Amino acid sequence: MPDDQRQARIVDFIAKLTAALGPKGVSTDAHEIEPHVKDWRGRWQGSTPVLVKPASTEEVSKAVKLCAEFGLAVTPQGGNSGMVNGSIPYGEVLISLKRMNRVRNIDVLNDAMTLEAGVILTQAQELADTNDRLFPLSLGAEGVATIGGLISTNAGGVAVLRYGMMRDLMLGIEAVLPDGRIWNGLRGLRKDNTGYDLKQLFIGAEGTLGLVTAATLKLFPKPAVKETAWVVLDTPAQAVELLARAKAASGGAVTGFEIVPRFGLELVLKHVPDIRDPLPSPAAWRVLIELSLPRPEGARDMMESLLGDAAEAELILDAAIADNEAQKALFWKIRESVPVAERAHGKALKHDVSAPVSRVAEFLERGEALVRKMAPQCDLIAFGHVGDGNIHFNVTAPKGVDADAYLEGEGLSVSKAIHDLIMELNGSISAEHGIGKLKRAELAWRKSQVEMDMMRAVKKALDPDNRMNPGRLL
Ligand code: MLT
Ligand code: ZN
Q1: Of 139, 34, 141, 140, whose CA–CA distance to 88 is shortest?
Q2: Looking at the domain assignment, is residue 184 inside a domain?
Q3: Of 85, 146, 243, 457, whose CB count within 10 A is highest?
Q4: Residue 314 and residue 209 share a domain
């Protein structure tokens, strides 16, 4: 279609959209649109002819029906805190779900709450808390990430080893399909054996099958006490052994088990204010352990004997158990500041990989050897969720070279080698950040033909015209 015709169609579309949703639901104001068309790290810049801001599922449905009528593609967006270039429009109609932020229902005895897609994660956590329950999803971007985005990216974070990823926290879903129809699958059932579990299709679909508008989420008992320790050790293999002991000693109450390399800690100390090293040591690794327990009695003893036994078995070199909330906050702040400190240090090749927990130590050892050999002038910052087998294995561009050119050029062979290694270990090239545009091409050749065929068949069945976040994921 010639440009002027396309432009006239867009003008017509916006007029119809404004008539359907009212002026509050539509914006073409460049200033308002600006933060929605770039990512928070400043890596990608997109554009959109219009920002749609529906306030209800019916309004989402009207907007999507109009997009279908005009043959326009859609990019859905939540908090726009994603990592893989999945939620920025490149010419698509942008639908932000942020105004859909109502609590629909909280059913305490059913341990469930139903929230709209635009509710922010911290608000969801607080709502659970005021109802004497826990909503366990917890991650760095929790102050901006929305329920809809967390579902669409199947978010992970720091409590996955005990509670699972977003996929595991869902009972029901409401979604608007590419043709604009509303599917109300907001069931609060733990048992529902009536065929395909269709909600699972929308979880981690990155907006490619429709728009998630609401969800029924699982709630958990609030732990009475958390014991948090900072541990110094020599090797990743010791960390994995310590994890197994922690699970056994606590009856499965390990809710956090995160690894930080000494270099990552040094960067945090250098770049982040108000941090001190809890246990200065030349040893190579630190682990943060969190146990969440239903009773305060015996909790401290449990952590103490776990660490005492580990020290006796020469698994760990040193450990500090937090005596108060400020110390707990310090341990977590160190861990959660690693990505920020890394960014201050310089641009890096990012690898969000996972392996079976039993092979994480092998991955870290072989991965480090590979980086030292292929890119001796680069720094390695490998940290994260050992308890889930998920490591953020980041390699900085060498000092003194054009970092962007390195990341797009020579660095790609380092990334390929790291991903080859993770595949050899039966791992994944994207453990928690998803695919988006960033890893789409690699996914297509890393996954088997049969797996790609099944994914494409699902996509074609639900979105035959490829109008839902096209060019992401698939
Ligand atoms: C984290 O675990 O801190 C994040 O997923 C990693 C990141 O922000 O790069
Ligand atoms: Zn992570």
Answers
A1: 34
A2: yes
A3: 146
A4: no
Residues 6+ apart with CB under 8 A from 430: 84, 352, 353, 439, 443
Distance CA 446, CA 444 (A): 6
Check residue 1 and give its pLDDT: 77
Q: Which residue matches tokens 């554009």?
A: 47
Q: Which residues of the chain have pLDDT under 70?
A: none
Question: Rounded to whole angstroms, how far apart are CA atoms 318 and 55?
Answer: 53
Which pLDDT score, from 0 to 100, does residue 42 have?
86
Whether 82 and 37 share a structural domain: yes
Residue 274 tokens read as: 């108000």
Paired strand residues for 221: 133
Report the CATH number at residue 18: 3.30.43.10
pLDDT at 41: 85
For strand 74-77 and strand 93-96, is the pairing parallel, antiparallel, or unpaired? parallel
Residues with CB under 6 A from ligand 1: 140, 339, 384, 392
- The whole-number pLDDT of residue 2 equals 83
The CATH number linked to 214 is: 3.30.465.10
How far, in Å, CA of 46 to CA of 30, rounded? 12
* pLDDT value for 419: 98
**376 alpha carbon – ligand 2 mean position (Å):** 25
| Domain hosting residue 132, numbered range | 103-221
Name the nearest CA neighbour of 400 among 338, 346, 344. 346
Do residues 191 and 233 both lie within one domain? Answer: no
Could you tell me if 189 and 199 are in contact, meaning their C-beta atoms sit under 8 angstroms apart? no
How many domains is the chain partitioned into structurally?
4
Same domain, 111 and 201: yes
Residue 230 three-state SS: strand
Same domain? For 244 and 301 the reply is yes
Q: Give the number of whichever ligand sits closest to the CA of residue 338.
A: 1
Which pLDDT does position 223 carry in this prediction?
97
The reported pTM is 0.96
Closest-CA residue, ligand 1 atom 2, reads: 384
Ligand 1 centre distance from Cα of residue 251 (Å): 28
Q: Identify whether 283 is part of a domain.
A: yes
Report d(CA 2, CA 194) in Å as an integer. Answer: 49
Q: How far is CA 52 from CA 191, 197, 222, 338, 458, in A?
A: 36, 30, 38, 35, 27
In angstroms, the CA 433 to CA 277 distance is 29
Return d(Cα 160, Cα 141) in angstroms, integer. 15
Pocket test for ligand 1, best of 392, 396, 430, 432 (most atoms within 8 A of CB): 392
Tell whether 147 is covered by a domain. Answer: yes
Nearest atom within ligand 1 for CA of residue 335: 3
Residue 170 and residue 260 in one domain = no
